[in-house]
Specification:
The protein has helices at residues 2-17, 91-94, 166-169, 209-231; strands at residues 31-32, 41-42, 50-53, 65-70, 80-83, 98-105, 111-118, 128-131, 135-137, 143-149, 155-158, 175-180, 193-203. By secondary structure, it is of the alpha+beta class. Strands 2, 5, 7, 8, 9, 11 and 12 form a 7-stranded antiparallel β-sheet that branches. It has a single domain (2-231), classed as Jelly Rolls, CATH 2.60.120.260. The protein is built from 4 helices and 13 strands. The protein is 20% helix and 30% strand.
Length: 232
């Protein structure tokens, strides 16, 4: 079994190596700290919903974070921000199967927070996979650590378009979203809210050996798509 697993890993690595510039996209342990920059996170409306705050992050004075507002708190009706830069690419090749972050709720009500991934940019008609269960962010004005797993047990398809299996979708991510939504969603709910976001990290948790077998096929099929998109 160890020899078989090693062979599978080597095959996967070989297939993905030929895809070219995958490593220029998402990488394991990358982290967005929002120190002097929004780190390519936007709301799609000129960035007016996202504000860089220079102090008061999880590490206290001098720790910057991204503040996202919606509804009566300012900005668009929905609480959503997304990244189509360093969070794109082949998550399986990078070994990323979890995204963690620090969150703070400035409003009066508990908020359901989810992540959503898609293999193409565009409006809500472009489908993707969203967290089955949200992280319930308390309305206590404190920083909390949220962890989102990128597997079939924790993600579910959303949107109107036909989707490939999640394992294939993860080899060609073009859009990572953070939304507040009562149900799995691409654009989130219309809501009056304000949250702080910091320390968005690409992480890895142990996967069963069977996961490798299931993802080799998807990696091979989607490798050329990743090379083309990451190089653009």
């Amino acid at each position: 079994m160890p020899h078989r697993r090693s062979a599978i890993v080597m095959l996967t690595a070989s297939l993905l190596f030929t895809s070219g510039r995958v490593a220029e996209c998402v990488t394991l342990n990358q982290v967005d700290l929002f120190q002097g920059s929004k780190d390519n996170w936007t709301d799609g409306h000129g960035g007016t919903d996202g504000t860089l705050v220079g102090t008061g992050g999880p590490n206290g004075a001098g720790d910057s974070y991204l503040q996202i507002s919606s509804g009566t708190f300012g900005g668009e009706p929905r609480l959503v921000t997304f990244n189509e830069a360093q969070w794109t690419g082949n998550y399986i090749a990078a070994g990323v199967n979890e995204i963690s972050m620090s969150l703070k709720n400035f409003g009066p009500s508990t908020l359901p927070i989810r992540i959503t991934i898609r293999d193409a940019a565009g409006g809500q008609t472009v489908g993707g996979y969203s967290s089955k269960n949200p992280f319930m962010l308390p309305a206590d004005g404190q920083w909390h650590t949220a962890q989102f797993l990128l597997d079939a047990a924790d993600m579910t398809p959303v949107g109107f378009s036909a989707l490939p299996p999640l394992a294939t979708e993860l080899t060609a991510v073009q859009d990572l979203r953070l939304v507040s939504a009562g149900q799995p969603s691409i654009i989130g709910d219309a809501i009056n809210a304000r949250i702080g976001v910091d320390d968005i990290r690409a992480a890895s948790v142990p996967e069963p050996a069977a996961y490798i077998l299931l993802t080799v096929g998807g990696a091979a099929i989607a490798a050329w798509r990743v090379a083309r998109r990451c190089a653009s």
